[in-house]
Structures are given as structure tokens and as C-alpha cells.
Specification:
InterPro entries: MORN_2. This is Toxin-antitoxin system YwqK family antitoxin. By secondary structure, the chain is mostly beta strands. It has a domain at about 1-80: Outer Surface Protein A, domain 3 (Alpha-Beta Complex), CATH 3.90.930.1. The protein is built from no helices and 23 strands. The protein has strands spanning about 1-5, 10-15, 15-20, 20-30, 35-40, 50-55, 60-65, 70, 75-80, 85-90, 95-100, 110-115, 120-125, 130-140, 140, 145-150, 155-160, 165, 170-175, 180-185, 190-195, 200-205, 215-220. It has a 23-stranded antiparallel sheet that branches. It starts with a strand and ends with a strand. The relative contact order is 0.06.
Amino acid sequence: MSKYYYPSGQLQQETPYKNGDVKGVVRTYHENGNLSDEIPYNGSMNIDGIYRTYYESGNLSHEMPYKNGKREGLAKYYFENGNIEKEISFKNDKQEGIEKWYYENGMLATETWKNDKFHRSYKQYYKNGNIQLVITYSNNKKQGMQKWYYENGKLVAEIPFLDDKANGIIKYYTLQNKLVQGKYVAEHKLLWQITAQKGKLVNGKCISGKSPYKLTFNKD
């Protein structure tokens, strides 16, 4: 066992050895004496087991599972208050499977499923737990119906996508649950052609980059 110290004399690191190789859990410490890292080695210079890091306060920061030097399993990250911040799945050192992010109050914020072929689904949630957005991807492009929701759980909009482009009839619902329909008519310019309930045509723009999409109309 080798040990290293801060200039203050406080223990900084402990490293176990067997037959000249690092084998066991290497521990590093914050200068205040609290644990900083726990790194398990298998004797072949590979991390094997749960790699843990800690905040200076001593609370757990994250846990990363390893198998013979490669990330394998569910990694967990924590807020300093102890609540889970995110969970990410790994397989053979690559991210694959479920990924979840949480608000600091413990409620789920986003949920993504993905695999090595870039097929995935994405869900985003409000802080009250209601779903805000659902998107499906295939070959890393948006495909199918994208759905937005109000914070009260009611549907805001349905926007069809094909190969990462809006395509087809969109449906937008007001808070009073009134339906407005339209179609995408100007590729790459984010212009929509909207038909109101009474059949009157109005032109509008769909402004991306905001959550949810902001629809603005010029009524004549």
C-alpha cells in the first residue's frame, strides 16, 4: 500500500498493490479529509467494478460501473443534496439503452432510449411530472409524429416528420382545446400554411429553438 499526502499532512491517496500491480480500490481524498474517489482495479491496470466519486462535502457524486476496463451497466449521477440527477446505460463502453435526467426536486425531466444504430425516442417532462414533448428518431433523424403538451397534460401540437423534416398535416390545439390544422409548405424556411376552424387561410411561422414551438400568425 502506497500513500500520498497533501503539504498540510492530510492523506491524499491510498493505492494498494499486489505483485507490483495496482489491485484493489484506489482511494483519493479531498484536503478536508472527505473521500473524493474510489477506483477499483483488477491487477491488470483495468478498472473493474463501481468507480465512485464524491463531493467535497462527502456526498456521493456519481457511480460508473466498469467491467475489465470498459463501461458496462447503469451509471448514476447525483445532485449534492443526494437526489438523482441522471442515469445513463452503457454496453461494451458505449452508451446504449435508457438515459434519464431529473430535476433537482427528484421529478423526471427527460427520458431517452437509444442504441448503436441511432434509433431512439426522446421524452421531456415538466417539473410537475406531466409530459411535455415526445420525439422519435430513426437513423438519427426525426421520424413520425412529434407531440407537444401543455403543462396541464393537454395536447398542444402534433407535427409529422419524415427524415428530419416536417412533412404533412400539423395539428395545433389551443388551451380551450380548439383545433387548428395546417401543412408545411416552405422547406427550410419554417413557414406554415394554417387553416382556421372557419376555413379561412392564414399564414404563419413556426419558430424553432423554443419549447414548445411558438406559432405566430398574420391574420388579414
